[in-house]
Design a protein that fits this description.
By secondary structure, the protein is of the alpha+beta class. The protein folds into two domains: 121 residues, no CATH class; 201 residues, Orthogonal Bundle (MetI-like fold). The strands form two sheets. A six-stranded antiparallel beta sheet has the order 2-1-12-11-10-9. Strands 3-4-5-6-7-8 form a six-stranded antiparallel beta sheet, with no helix packed on it. Helix 5 runs parallel beside helix 8. The longest helix is centred in the C-terminal third of the chain and has 39 residues.
Length: 431
């Protein structure tokens, strides 16, 4: 072949490679464009409500104090997050609420709301005075002249004013103001605790004076944040993951010998074992959770069984592949001593695969702690159930943040513990 022919063939080869190199990114880009429109991303962006997103984010790190007036009786109730468990005693309230025949509510930026015997007044700096006389005929709201701003929603039977200072909602039967504050109020002590409102130094002083048990009891039995229930839920989540993972390992190990080519010469037995593993791990853990919850009812045990079934298939495949890669020389050495089959497995096989098995078991234990959170939401157990309940209420998003923080911390602790155990058990190093 002449040099010209070689040069022509080489150029053609490089041209084809350049085309392939350019075609692959182009295909990926075309696929992403297709997904962008097929999944309705433009419509999702168009209908996205940034206002609700900001409210959601602010709810995660702040709390609301509600001041509610019964328009029929004139009774005033003040409660943190609007909950009965966070309600102030009658005739009491925060410093920014002045109770009386006309209740004055001071909001941020000079906003003032007055709950009078008959009339509700909201003085909004830069806009004017909004009044309402709720009754059987409706809210009867009166607004300043001009166009109604988008932060006021007014109808015959409802008036809602949402500003950076707070929100006022008036219906025929009830008027309510709530104001945001940064932090997680009542996280340590509820309003009925003698330690509510105390600083850290003052609380420590009481603890040193012999009240440590009472302080811990008030914190542990907090009705708003339910610390004792949350701690038990975390324990249930870890227990589900532990029982499911360890149980699956104990079941999968003997079955793995049946699926390993070098330990089971009978092809039919190997085929049956491998197809069993495929079936168990082929059905997702969430599906097993739904099936088992219908069969055995809700509870953490159902979640543990779901993890056990799924991981039995996964461990069976991993363990059988590890067994097929063992060194036969070590087994032959044990055989030469006259050892029986079970002794050959115990001293010639298990020591070889133990590092792999332990590493996989500990990894899946860590992973299953995360999975148990979702499974617990379905089976009615663990921190996943509390998280789901908090999300469904769409009221106390700071609790949702609290549970998510705890889940992340739990996963971090399990990751650290799993790594320490791997180093300790496999390499013999404590750190």
């Amino acid at each position: 072949m002449s040099n010209a022919a070689i040069l022509t063939e080489t150029r053609g080869l490089f041209r084809r490679k350049r085309l392939v190199a350019a075609a692959i990114p182009a295909m990926v880009l075309a696929y992403l464009v297709y997904i962008f429109f097929a999944f309705g991303v433009p419509e999702m962006i168009r209908t996205a409500d940034t206002k609700n997103a900001r409210i959601l984010v602010s709810d995660s790190y702040s709390y609301k104090t509600h001041v509610t007036r019964d328009n029929r009786s004139g009774d005033i109730q003040i409660a943190i997050e609007g909950e009965r468990k966070g309600r102030y005693d009658a005739g009491t309230g925060p410093s920014w609420v002045t109770l009386g025949e006309t209740t004055e509510i001071l909001l941020d930026e000079g906003h003032i709301v007055l709950f009078g015997p008959e009339e509700i007044r909201y003085d909004i700096p830069g806009y004017g005075l909004v009044t309402a006389n709720p009754g059987r005929g409706g809210v009867n709201a009166r607004l300043p002249g001009g166009d109604v701003p988008d932060w006021i929603n007014a109808s015959k039977n409802r008036l809602t004013i949402t500003t950076a200072a707070g929100r006022l909602t008036i219906t025929r039967n009830r008027s309510e103001v709530f104001r945001y504050f940064t932090g997680w109020e009542l996280f340590f002590f509820t309003l009925d605790s003698p330690y509510h409102g105390m600083g850290l130094g003052e609380v420590l002083g009481h603890a040193v004076s012999g009240e440590a048990g009472a302080i811990w009891q008030d914190f542990w039995t907090n009705k708003m944040w339910r610390h004792s229930d949350v701690a038990w839920a975390i324990f249930e989540t870890i227990l589900m993951a532990f029982l499911g993972t360890v149980g699956a390992a104990l079941i999968a190990l003997p079955l793995a010998f049946l699926a390993a080519r070098n330990f089971t010469p009978l092809g039919a037995a190997r085929f049956a074992a491998r197809r069993l593993f495929d079936f168990l791990r082929g059905v997702d853990g969430l599906i097993w959770t739904v099936v088992l919850s219908r069969a055995f009812g809700p509870g953490p045990l159902t979640g543990a069984l779901a993890i056990l079934i799924t991981d039995s298939g996964t461990f069976g495949k991993i363990f059988s592949e590890a067994l097929e890669n063992v060194d036969d020389k070590q087994i032959e050495g044990i055989r030469s001593t006259g050892a029986k089959p079970m002794q050959r497995y115990r001293f010639g096989v298990i020591p070889q695969v133990t590092p792999i098995l332990l590493s996989q078991i500990l990894y899946y234990l860590e992973s299953n702690v995360r999975s148990a959170t979702i499974i617990g939401a379905i089976t009615g157990g663990g921190i996943g159930l509390l998280l789901t309940q908090a999300i469904i209420t769409q009221k106390d998003w700071e609790e949702v943040t609290y549970y998510i923080v705890l889940i992340v911390l739990m996963v971090m602790v399990m990751d650290t513990l799993s790594g320490w155990l791997r180093r300790r058990l496999i390499h013999g190093k404590p750190a």
